[in-house]
Design brief:
Layout (H helix, E strand, L loop, with lengths): L2 E5 L14 H15 L6 E5 L8 H8 L5 H16 L7 E4 L12 E6 L3 H4 L1 H4 L5 H16 L3 E4 L2 H11 L6 E3 L6 H4 L8 H7 L7 E5 L8 H17 L6 E5 L8 H10 L6 E5 L3 H10 L2 E4 L8 H8 L4 E4 L4 H5 L4 E3 L4 H13 L1 H15 L4 H16 L5
């Protein structure tokens, strides 16, 4: 029986920071699918960086590099270790994150491209890194994607980016959208939670505008803060309770955090922006129910799972209209240009004040989010495995 190996390195909390992020969720759900529904015609097994033969001397040499150690270990040394390891009798490998996939492989492999952010927004990211390091990482990623037997992407928009930027034909690309966990549909939106307010310091009467995610450049946190400030001013002008902004996520260690704090101070928003750091899952679900609206003005997303999960929880969503967002969210969210902060402020206030409008997008969002499931993601991924095992090459 043919065998496909799924790289589960992202589940190791010591391997970068993938385990607690979207990549970790993606790999965890794929692994769960194949364990729950083992296919009858092929075997899916799992491997990671720890399970292959180490090369201590080579790793010590790479550790002396001033930068780019993880990139070189993942994309250059890792395939050598795979090739030397005798216990991996696999026909096809699947690397579920292109930034970690090797630039070459001793076996046929599939790679998942989660997004093309550093290529699409190169001017935004290049100044943050030494030019040689940025160029090396992008070149290795291009090699990893181009050398794959099949490229999986998580949205049609990313498929178009891969085709346009790397000149990879669409018949070598398969779209496997992400899914929404059933737990989000169990949230009772609009349910007050005084204990949650007390524990996180949320004022008792203040409506909550929620943001969930990171704060790297593409997330447009500056636009989020501007839109929030405008919403507060509109509410105050009408002598109504002004909202607070709750930013859920482990953002304090991000290189952008000092800039974010400078902006919060410049806009005089310090008492009204809550940033408690990592939020346990149970509390996060409670926040979805407690909050009035999710604001997500990102410049670019590979899929946009966070706003989709918020919609599943019944939370009205205000999102940017860029990249994959119109494709994934469609008309179940209110879509705006990411820099249209004045309009975003007005929409946020409208959702806070017009119950029928908020209810409309709550219902539309839940209904739309049901179209996405991790089971479907697993089925489409299995189809891709079979396609490569049949000897597909373009």
């Amino acid at each position: 029986m043919p065998c496909v190996g799924l790289d589960t390195s992202a589940l190791d909390s010591q391997f970068k920071e993938h385990a607690a992020r979207g990549i970790g969720r993606y790999v965890r759900e794929l692994k769960s699918y194949f364990e729950t529904y083992p296919p009858p015609d092929l075997r899916v097994t799992f491997f990671d960086h720890k399970g292959v033969a180490p090369l201590p001397l080579a790793e010590r040499v790479l550790d002396k590099f001033p930068a780019g150690k993880m990139t070189l270990k993942s994309q250059v040394l890792y395939p050598i270790r795979l090739g030397l390891s005798r216990k991996f009798g696999l026909d096809v490998l699947h690397f579920p994150a292109h930034m970690d996939a090797p630039a070459w492989s001793p076996k046929r492999y599939i790679v998942t491209v989660l997004d093309m952010i550093p290529f699409v927004l190169e001017k935004l990211y290049r100044p943050e890194r030494p030019s040689w390091r940025f160029a090396l990482a992008r070149w290795l990623e291009k090699c990893a994607i181009r050398n794959a037997a099949l490229v999986l992407v998580i949205s049609e928009n990313t498929a178009k980016d891969v085709n346009r930027i790397l000149n990879i034909s669409f018949d070598r690309i398969a779209v496997t959208p992400l899914g929404v966990d059933a737990k989000f549909f169990g949230v009772r939106w609009g349910e007050e939670n005084l204990d949650l307010r007390r524990r996180y310091g949320i004022p008792a009467a203040a409506p909550v505008i929620l943001y969930v995610g990171g704060i790297d450049q593409r997330k447009n946190w500056a636009g989020l803060l501007e839109a929030f400030k405008g919403a507060r001013e509109l509410r105050q002008h009408r002598n109504l309770e002004a909202p607070v902004l709750f930013m859920a996520g482990k953002i304090q260690g991000d290189r952008q955090f000092p800039k974010l704090m400078e902006t919060v101070k410049r806009l005089n928003l310090e008492p009204f922006v809550l940033m408690p750091g990592f939020i346990p899952e149970e509390d996060l679900l409670g926040l979805y129910g407690l909050s009035r609206v999710l604001c997500f003005l990102s410049y670019y997303e590979g899929f946009g799972l966070t706003p989709l999960e918020a919609m599943a929880a019944g939370l009205p969503v205000v999102s940017s209209n860029t990249s994959c967002m119109p494709e994934v969210l469609q008309d179940a969210a209110i879509l705006l240009g990411p820099d249209e902060t004045v309009q975003a402020s007005q929409v946020l206030v409208a959702l806070l004040e017009r119950e029928e409008l908020a209810r409309k997008y709550s219902e539309k969002g839940r209904k739309h989010a049901k179209k996405y499931s991790w089971t479907k993601t697993g089925e489409l991924t299995l189809d891709a495995y079979r396609r490569v095992l049949r000897g597909f090459y373009a």
